[in-house]
Amino acid sequence: MKRILILLLLCALALPAAAQKEFGGIARFDRTVHDFGKIDMRDGAVSCSFEVTNISDSVLNIFAVTTTCGCTSVVWTRTDIAPGGKGTIEVTYKNDEGPYPFDKTLTAYLSGLERPVILHIKGTAFKGKGRK
């Protein structure tokens, strides 16, 4: 019984790390995954944005954001983000391929972080009938 309680406690402590939204004491994202759910290809491109807050005492910059394919375009805040300030990474998925499930990766490079922040957009594109 004691082993089970210890295992449950360790699992509970590991959950926040899996859903990390704060990076290096420098930046906090409102989320790192956006799920569009089921989207009809006839609806055309879909967009979302990720909000980043500067939680450090220094100016934050988003240097670059790269995508995994040409089906995804991105625009981000290119000005300094003051301590306590916010910036955005706006993503548009063309939604012209498929139908199929998709999971696209965005790699965001921020000042003060040794490693980039990985963001995802995902969902399932379908043609016509199928939205439930």
Notes on the structure:
With 132 residues, the chain is mostly beta strands. The protein has a single domain, classed as Sandwich (Immunoglobulin-like). The protein is built from one helix and nine strands; from the N terminus they run H-E-E-E-E-E-E-E-E-E. It has a five-stranded antiparallel sheet with strand order 1-2-4-7-6, with no helix packed on it. The longest helix has 17 residues. The termini are far apart.
Q: Could you give the topology of this structure?
A:
Elements: H1 2-18, E1 22-23, E2 27-29, E3 33-40, E4 46-54, E5 62-67, E6 72-76, E7 86-93, E8 100-110, E9 117-126
Parallel strand pairs: 3-9
Antiparallel strand pairs: 1-2, 2-4, 4-7, 5-8, 6-7, 8-9
Order of helices and strands: HEEEEEEEEE
Q: What's the average pLDDT? A: 86
| CATH C-level label | Mainly Beta
What is the terminal separation in angstroms?
A: 43 Å
Instruction: Give the total of beta strands.
Output: 9
CATH third-tier fold name: Immunoglobulin-like
Which CATH architecture would you pick?
Answer: Sandwich
Helix content: 10-25%
Beta-strand portion reads over 45%
Q: What value does the Rg take, in angstroms?
A: 18 Å
Characterize the overall form: elongated
